[in-house]
Amino acid sequence: MLFKLACAITTRCLFLLVALVGICRVRWVKGDNWCWLLTVLFLPLLIEMIVTLKTRQGRDYKWFSPAILLFLISIIPSMWILELHHQQTKSSDLQCKKLDSWENVRSVTFLNGTVGNLTLKSFDGLFSTLCPNDWILALHQVILILLILGKWLLPIGGGITRDELSQLLLIFVGTAADILEFTSETLSDVKGNNPQLVFIILAVWTWSMLQFPLHLAVVTSRPNTTSEVGEAPDCSGGHGNTLFVRHSTDIWNVTESLLIQDGPFLVVRVTVLMYFDIFHQMLVFFTIKNLLVVVLSLYRFVVICRDYRPPSSSIP
Where does the sequence pass through the membrane (predicted)? Predict the structure, then answer.
């Protein structure tokens, strides 16, 4: 019990720490003290932590993770501000150090110097020497890694097996890689001052991140004698052979792919190719990749529907 409570508290503290680093970066690039108002977004996560520890001993819910959702709410506004500010000022960025060699990594991190003669670099020096684009990319990477590790560390909710959790974590890894590739590749295609395209990309990125709090693509609809708050009860009316009940995992996988990830990614990339007239090999490749996933997802859904045979009603 103490271990579960420690994991629940540690995970939420890591969420708050990363969100605070994002706000510190916003304060540094904007230079305005009003940026500290973003810390108000920490309150829902703190309240959720207190309530969850008191009522559920830190355990997560079966179908939904409030802690992950509230972490996203606390960090996404900072990422929007950083991305928009970078797109407006990237042409005037001063000489900075990119994380493309071990020498540059050592020069911009806290530990600076030779072994046995290490000195701490100040936060101001860390913020100023590292390229803004690398700062933003690092935050994207840390957020996605923390979402995976956070879900792993959070105590398992009622109704979730370890097998389902392992499947969910593997799905999160693939999802995180696709989202990071989408944001880094597509935002790098923005030429000049084009806020309209940046808004579209960030909106789709925000929408795609909402699949992390959901567990619907893995957790099956097993009938339960009792249901708790945040858990979806069995709505089959006692008939466990309906199409949705028998293939709920596949249907949710198809739905997430079409509506939350590959479908929106495909729309954005086609828009970048056709409307904004941006063309290069990698953009075409990832567009085709998203198109294939969408087509295969639709094909999977059609196969499920065609192969389904409703149970014959028994005559008393």
Answer: 34-51, 63-82, 135-154, 197-218, 278-299
Q: pLDDT tens digits for 154-169?
A: 888 766 788 888 888 9
Residue written as tokens 């972490």? 71
Nearest to 30 by CA among 84, 72, 73, 91: 84
Which pair of tokens denotes residue 257?
Answer: 């792919």
From the CB of residue 27, how many other CB atoms can be counted at a distance below 10 Å?
17
* Residue 37, number of CB atoms within 10 A of its CB: 10
* The one-letter amino acid at 38: L
What is the rounded radius of gyration, in angstroms, for the C-alpha atoms of the chain? Answer: 23
- Report how far residue 194's alpha carbon sits from residue 275's, in angstroms, rounded to the nearest whole number: 13
What is residue 92's DSSP assignment? G
> CB-based contacts of 27: which residues, under 8 Å, 6+ apart?
33, 35, 36
Residue position matching structure tokens 């996404």: 76
Burial class of residue 158 (count of CB atoms within 10 Å of its CB; 0-12, 13-18, 19+): middle
Nearest alpha carbon to residue 65 among 218, 224, 255: 218
Which residues fall within 8 angstroms of residue 85, CB to CB, at 6 or more apart?
A: 29, 30
Q: Residue 120, SS3?
A: strand
Give the integer Cα–Cα distance in Å for 77 and 79. Answer: 5
Does 173 score more than 70 pLDDT? yes
In degrees, rounded to 5, the angle at the alpha carbon of residue 262 between the alpha carbons of residues 259 and 265 is: 100
Backbone angles phi and psi of 64, in degrees to 5: -155, 145
Beta-carbon-side half-sphere exposure of residue 296 (alpha carbons within 13 Å): 9
The pLDDT tens digits of the residues spanning 1-14 come to 788 889 999 999 99
- Please, are residues 132 and 86 in contact by the beta-carbon 8 Å criterion? yes
State the Cα–Cα distance between residues 23 and 38, nearest whole angstrom: 7
